[in-house]
Amino acid sequence: MTTTMGLAERIGMVRAEVAEAAARAGRSPDAVTIVAVSKTVDRAAVDEAYALGLRHFGENRVQDAVRKFADPLPHDAVLHLIGQLQTNKARPAAALFGLIESVDRLSLIAALEKEAARLERTIPVLLQVNIAGEAQKAGCPPEDAADLVARIAATPGLALRGLMTIAPLVPDPEQVRPVFAGLRALRDLIRDEHPELPLATLSMGMSNDYATAIAEGATEVRIGRAIFGS
Length: 230
Ligand SMILES: *Cc1c(COP(=O)(O)O)cnc(C)c1O
Description:
CATH superfamily: Alanine racemase
CATH architecture: Alpha-Beta Barrel
Bound molecules: pyridoxal-5'-phosphate
Shape: globular
Strand content: 15-25%
Mean pLDDT: 96
Distance between the termini: 11 Å
Largest sheet: 8 strands, parallel
């Protein structure tokens, strides 16, 4: 089905489902940002999606993104880094991305602080948390999250925006509902103790489970296949 549809139809379907999931959760569709994950497609597809109204794009590899966006997107587009970031790639990442979602350790915070100072810019970031506890996945352990967000908030050149998690890939999205609920609960817990920390963003949910993530409070969903095809 999906593969026979064009990009405009797929975007239309995703928008409708996001709006429906938001409405079911008693939230405005505007409360959920759609990040089109463009890691598997070329620049022409990104430009087409931009022309169709999408403004947020997600990439998981710094080098690929540097090439793909050598010719910058229009100023109202925002590039999100959603993949693991090595400290030795902090320089190009700091220069290219409008939001770095994969901050998960002190050494990376320090590297980004340095690059932000060099560029004289403020870099918006999310703390990535490994809620599911998968051994091979990036993200800090939940018990380290409060200290790390406090550190980010106190770091010149970084602007804390919230939390991000990647749920395990499972056939039934209900299986990962506790992961999404867990990220929100962690955010709420940190917020109770540190109401001054800016933690509005919850980036969670992908093509197969974004409706569930929205039900559990996602403010940003990262959608690749459902928009660009498999
Ligand atoms: C690839 C990727 C996505 C998008 O996955 P789809 O299943 O294609 O929607 C979302 N988040 C991250 C971190 C990814 O690497």
